[in-house]
Amino acid sequence: MIVNQLSVFLENKSGRLTKVLEVLGMENIKIVALSVADTTEFGILRLIVSDHEKAKAILKQNSFTVNITEVISVVTPNEAKHYAGILKILSDIDISVEYTYAFSSGEKSVIILRCSNNEKAIEALKKHKMI
Amino acid sequence: MMEIWNRHFECMDRDELKKVQSERLRTTVERIYFNVPFYRHKMQEAGLGPESIKNIDDISKLPFTTKTDLRDNYPFGLFAVPMSEIVRLHATSGTTGKPTVVGYTRNDISTWSEVIARTLTAAGATRNDFIQIAYGYGLFTGGLGLHYGGEKIGASVIPVSGGNTTRQIQLMHDFGTTILACTPSYALFIAEALQESGINRDELKLKAGVFGAEPWTENMRREIEDKLRIKAIDIYGLSEVIGPGVASECSFQNGLHINEDHFYPEIVDPVTLKVLPEGAIGELVFTTITKEGLPLIRYRTRDLTRLTYEKCRCGRTFVRMEKCFGRSDDMLIIRGVNLFPSQIETVLLEMSEIKPHYRIIVDRVNNLDTLELQVEVDEVFFQDKISQLQILTEKLQDNLDKAIGLTVKVTLVEPKTIERSEGKAKRVIDKRKY
To answer: For residue range B6-16, what is the model confidence (pLDDT) as tens digits?
Structure first.
């Protein structure tokens, strides 16, 4: 399914990630998943949270640059071959993955994907009964 | 055909103009040598007498004058006529000490009216126009300067002065004002107040505005022109030289024509004080060649610009100066290259993806100057792709390299981390130790 992910621009300096988590924590926002992509100069924090609109408002109030991006989330059994299977379905129809991250909880894995064409990717994954 | 107030001078053949300037410079030098001890001493120190200046090209022999010289001789020390000849005094606010005082003889007032008449005519004004002057009247030269020029062309002058925006709009409506004269920021303020006033723009007869006395950008011009639906003409002047009327745009809005038959301009390197060739950016220097009350020799304006002598499509032959780039006090020397923060700002303003909130950090690593530009990432542009931000950084680096010829390290920073200021923001941090 499609989920709304928050993307936050962060400078590479200490305390910035802490600040994001603190302000969200104060407003009781729950974080479902989190990943950081970084370069030497800056990073992009990607978050899936309980209430993305509220979280965006809170971060904006605190002067962060925030945007909401639609990403695909797929739940699979917690085995590498399933992750591989998903990526193959996409590469077979020439959809590239811009980034992906995953986390597991018990028997299940949740895979987050941002593709060059989200709609086509979902269609293909549905066809293969992955979602 | 656009009207020109004084075709004889404004369209004069440049060789002919040079003769006029040479003759007027000689008269001015004689006047200051014999009437102003300050100038006489300075000329004597440089081994010069009045006979040393034969034509306008000899001007580069003369010493410079600065604002400090005016302050040191406060209030009337540099006047070249007895006070009985002075019919008007104006003064600038003394934010950094004593104010600067300027005095005008009757002829000076007449010159001033003449150059403003040219300015207003270039903006499209005639005797049939209603000119609303919303510059401040008083010691400031803006209000009265425009006023006398407006009367000279025979227009109906409305001396409303600055402030009281509701009344400004009411008068504009009731009197049928066609030309507005004020600072560009006040024009924008009026435009916004008009939208909330209940008076429809279509009920106004406004067609043009003459705006100056503070720096403004092309973006600001477009905004004023769109909101007020007028032609916004840039005018330039400084009290020390005469006030408004030193230079102004014509209807082509492609540089400001300097009234060269009264004010002779030069562009100099602010550090070496060498005269720079046509087209080079440097500090604007003026010599007044007709003024009687307070003649100024090679007065350093601190304003940075460049000149073009190419003939304008409007038919005027007077040299044109570009809108000022900034102040020479702000100049940085990076690896031997002169750099003005405003040059960087211009590049930023041209890129719609970036807000012009920036900070320049200069440092010296291994005896080599480094230049870093911190720019805030704008939410409108930010998505979540690293590659997109990197492309933006590279594009900006590339544009800067082309514009200023220096490699700049661009760093994206979070919004609002760069200090905001209404007035002069601290845009440059120079960490170099000398």
So the answer is: 999 999 999 99
Question: Which domains, and CATH codes, for chain A?
Answer: 2-67 (3.30.2130.10), 71-127 (3.30.2130.10)
Token pair of B6, please? Answer: 């004084």
Residues of chain B with C-beta less than 8 angstroms from the C-beta of A65: 377-379, 382, 414-415
Q: What is the residue-wise DSSP string for B236-277?
A: EEETTTTEEEEEEE-TT-SSEEE-TTTEEEEEE-TTT-PBPP
Q: Looking at the complex, does the CB of residue A40 fall below 8 Å from at least one CB of chain B?
A: no
* ipTM, interface predicted TM-score of the complex: 0.78
The enclosing H or E element of B212 equals: none
Burial-class residue B149 by CB neighbours within 10 Å (0-12, 13-18, 19+): buried
Contact residues on chain A for B377, CB-CB shorter than 8 A: 9, 65
Of A9, A67, A98, the CB nearest to B414: A9
- CA B286 – CA B279 distance, rounded (Å): 17
Digit-coded pLDDT (tens) for A62-89:
989 999 999 999 999 988 899 999 999 9
* B412–A63 C-beta distance less than 8 A: no
* DSSP per-residue codes, B399-430: HHHHHHSS--EEEEE-TT-SPP-SS----EEE
Angle (deg, nearest 10), helices B14-35 and B37-45: 110
Of B383, B393, B414, the CB nearest to A64: B414
Closest C-alpha to B258, from B346, B181, B323, B184: B323
From residue B209, give the alpha-carbon distance in Å to each of A83, B6, B171, B184, B249. 66, 21, 15, 9, 11
List CB contacts (< 8 A) between A114 and chain B. Answer: 384
Phi first, then psi: what are they for B160, rounded to 5°?
-80, -20
Structural domains of chain B sorted by starting position, each given as residue range(s) with its CATH number in brackets: 87-328 (3.40.50.12780), 332-430 (3.30.300.30)
CA dist., res. B120 & res. B233, Å (int): 9
CB contact under 8 A, B384 and A5: yes
Answer whether A42 sits within 8 Å of B383, measured CB to CB.
no
d(CA B316, CA B43): 35
Distances (CA, A) of B75 to B91, B92, B109, B242, B328: 9, 12, 19, 16, 26
Cβ pair A41:B379 closer than 8 A: no
Q: Which two tokens stand for residue A28?
A: 């009781």
Closest CA relative to residue B78, chosen from B135, B36, B129: B36
The band of B422, judged by pLDDT with boundaries at 50, 70 and 90, is: very low
